[in-house]
Amino acid sequence: MKKFILVQGLLIQSLLLSSSEFESLDNILSNNLEDPLIIGFSHGRFDKSLDILNYGDKLTSTKPEKAISDTLFISYKYNKFKISYESLSSTGTVQRQTQPKKLETDVQGSSLFLSYNFLENEKNNFEIGLFSKKEEQDPVTIDCYAFGSTVIGGSCEEAKLRLLNSSIYKSTGELIYEPVLKTEGESSSEGIYLRISPKDLNLLNFTHTFLYKTSDINQDYESAILDTTDSFIRGLSIDGNNAGTLLDNFKDELPQKTPWKENTFKYSISNLVPLGNSFGLSTMYSFIKVSRSNFLTNPSKENFTKNHLLDLSLFYKFNDFGILYLKLSASSNYLLGENPLAYNRKSSHLFDHPYGQLNAGLILNF
């Protein structure tokens, strides 16, 4: 049920990231499933045929090739308390016209939710919840990078500026060149939400969810060639440009190495309408507002802080404990506010475009 992610650009720190699918489903199905135990498993896949809003066509030098994600979640309700856990594993690949020609990254994530149904009346249930989320991107090594028409670093033949691994050369005599970059990232989030859900399901009864989340984001990289202070290397002339200036300009475009914080407010309104005994149809609209602190903006790129999301879901109950569902989702500004790890001063321009995906999943209720 995870989202099929498209991300353009180098060093976004995650080519495949997804918002919490359990969070979305809990908004819709909370208090509407009879039995206390919920288990869900999902498999998501992206290729160009699933790009329903042509997000990939709006990108230039980098194109998404494929993305796969697997999600498992489990939830248990005891009296008025509910505890839930979600685990995500995802991988994504993009192709580029210049170096690096292909990039692949893996992301692992987990979320823990605890909620309490503190009040109910004839019409509604009132639920308050706390949650914690973590995401980690596996390290990515970038051998060569094309900065404009100039390729630097690594083992590719077209590189015009390289840095030799001196320790390997001294011990073996081999000419092994340092990669341009080794990068990784992680985020941790904590939040609170209030949900007001109706006891009766019909077209005019809505669930309202108010959520506040604070996220700490840390993106880091290592680069021997970008951090070099060797006056000979920095004094070289490459394609008419000073090597030191070229390397400094490249570093200025990278995500910042110092941590920053993202604060997110999200309001969602949804409903679930039964269609006979086996089917149900749900719509959900969400508004997201983001603020950031200690974030170094890119003066040449716009900084985005708002997003609008719309989900349309169809549920099919095929027996007493099993539900299949299909969900179409669209957002006005990519995954803004959903995935704090994806937004940085290198990738911020990607959030200027609408985005869409198709999700599918299985829910078991015992």
Sheet with the most strands?
Answer: 12 strands, antiparallel, barrel
* Poorly predicted ranges: 1-17
Q: Name the shape in a single word.
A: elongated
String of helices and strands: HEEEEEEEHEEHEEHEEEEE
Total helix count?
4
**Proportion in β-strands:** over 45%
Termini distance? Answer: 20 Å
Helix content: under 10%
| Strand elements, count | 16
Mean of residue pLDDT? 86
Structural class: mainly beta
Radius of gyration: 23 Å
Strand order in space, largest sheet: 1-2-3-4-5-8-9-12-13-14-15-16
Characterise this structure.
- The protein is mainly beta and 366 residues long.
- 8% of the residues lie in helices and 52% in strands.
- The protein contains 4 helices and 16 strands.
- The protein has helices at 21-29, 166-172, 231-234, 243-253; strands at residues 37-46, 62-78, 81-96, 102-120, 124-142, 145-147, 150-152, 181-198, 207-222, 237-238, 241-242, 260-275, 279-293, 306-317, 322-331, 355-365.
- A hairpin with a 3-residue loop joins strand 4 and strand 5.
Q: Quick summary of this structure?
A:
Helices cover 8% and strands 52% of the residues. By secondary structure, the protein is mainly beta.
